[in-house]
Amino acid sequence: MGALIAVLAVAVVSAVLIGLNQFGGDEPASASPQTSGQTATQPAEETPSDTPTPTATPTPTPTATPTPTPTTPPALMAAGATGDQVRELQARLKQLQWYAPDINGEFDDVTIAAVTGFQEKRELPVTGEVDQVTWDTLVGMTETPTEDELNNVLTPGPTILGPGDTGDQVRELQARLKQIDWYSGDVTDTYGDTTTAAVKGFQERREFPTTGEVDQRTWDKIVEMTSTPTDDELHNREPENNGGDTAGLDERCLTGRVLCIDKSNNSLRWVVDGEVRMSFDVRFGTDETPTREGEFQVNSKSRDHVSSLYDTPMPFAMFFSRGQAVHYSPDFAANGYNGGSHGCVNVRDRDAIESLFDQVNIGDKVIVYWS
Question: Which UniProt keywords apply (predicted)?
Fold first, then answer.
C-alpha cells in the first residue's frame, strides 16, 4: 500500500511539471515561430565591399557679383566757386573760344556752359564741373594766361599790316573794309592815313586795342565779317554786266532788292529799288524737276557749294526754296539750253554771277514768274 502511494505521488508531480511546461513556460530566445510543414528562411548576410559607395558632392550655388557703381571724379572747381583758379579756368577756356565775356573769377552759369561744351567736345564725362582729367586736358591745349588776360586787358599782337605797307594784301584789306562801310574811296595798294583811320574805327567798335595797325585778332575779325573781294572790287571796276531795261518786270520786282526771274524769256535781272543793275541768261528745271514759281527770299548762300544729292558743283549758290538756288552752271556754260537743271536757276556767266553773289544779301526777294 505504501509503495502504491509513492508511485501515485511521482505521477502527480510529473503531471504538474508537464502542465507548467505547456502553459506557463517561456520560449527560448533563439526560437522562431514555425508553420507546420515549412522551414523558416534566415536573411542572407551582406558581403562587405572594399569599394566605398560614392557620396554626391553638392554643387555650389554661384554668388552674384555686384555691379560696381560708377564713381564721379572729385571736382576741383564747381558752380559757386570763386577766386584766382576760376580766373585761370575762364582765361584758358577763352583761349579756345569756349568762354566769351570778361573774366570775373566766378564759376557762374556761363562758366558751367563753357566747361560742359568743352567736356562734350572732348568726350569727357559731361558734368559742368572741373575734375582732374578735364583740367589736365584744358591745360594741355592752352598756354598759361598772362596778367593782362586774367584781368581783361587786351594787348595788340604783332603787326601784320601797318602804315607805309604796300601791295596786294593792302588792297584786300581796303576792299574788305569797304564791304562793311569802314573804308571809302578807291581801293589802292598803299596803307596810308585813310586806311589807318578805317582800321582804328573798326578796332574801337569791337573793343580791340585801337592801334590803327592790323594784328591777327583784327584781321581774323575782318575776314569773318566779309567775303573774298572780286577782281572788280580790288581794282575799282564796275561789273561788265551793268544792267538792262525794265520791260516785262513783275510789279513785285519794282521795290526793294530783288532777283527777278522771268521764265518767259529765260532771264534773271538784279533789281534794286526799281533799277535794273545786272541781267543774265538763265535756264530752268526740266518737266520732271521744274523750278518753282512764286515769291521767295534768299535764305542762305554758299560760295563753293557742291550738291550732296547730285554730287555736282554749284558755285555761288543763292538758295531761295528748299534745295533750289540760283547758281553758276558749267554745264549751261558748255552746252547752253541743250539740257536743264534739277530745279535750280542756272547762270552761265561766271564772272558776272560772282559779282552778283557778293551783292546779294540773305533776305533779298526772289520772284519767279511768267511775264
Answer: Cell shape, Cell wall biogenesis/degradation, Hydrolase, Peptidoglycan synthesis, Transferase
Rounded Cα gap, residues 331 and 335, in angstroms: 6
C-beta separation of 162 from 191 below 8 A: yes
Residues classed as catalytic: 327, 344
Amino acid at 227: S
Count of domains in the chain?
3
Q: Give the mean pLDDT per block of 10 residues along the chain (371 residues).
A: 49 45 38 40 49 60 63 86 95 92 94 95 95 96 91 89 97 93 94 97 91 95 87 82 83 96 95 93 94 97 89 93 94 88 94 92 97 92
pLDDT of residue 52: 58
216-225 and 193-205 helices cross at what angle (nearest 10)? 80
Write down the pLDDT at residue 65: 64
DSSP string, 109-120: HHHHHHHHHHHH
**Last residue within a domain, chosen from 151, 185, 207:** 151
Question: Do 179 and 110 reside in the same domain of the chain?
Answer: no
- Tell me the chain's radius of gyration from C-alpha atoms: 53
Pick from 303, 302, 301, 266: which is nearest to 285 by CA?
266
Last-in-domain residue among 113, 135, 151 = 151
Q: In what order do the strands lie in the sheet with 257-262?
A: 294-297, 365-369, 257-262, 267-272, 275-283, 345-347, 324-328, 313-321, 300-306
pTM greater than the 0.70 cutoff: no
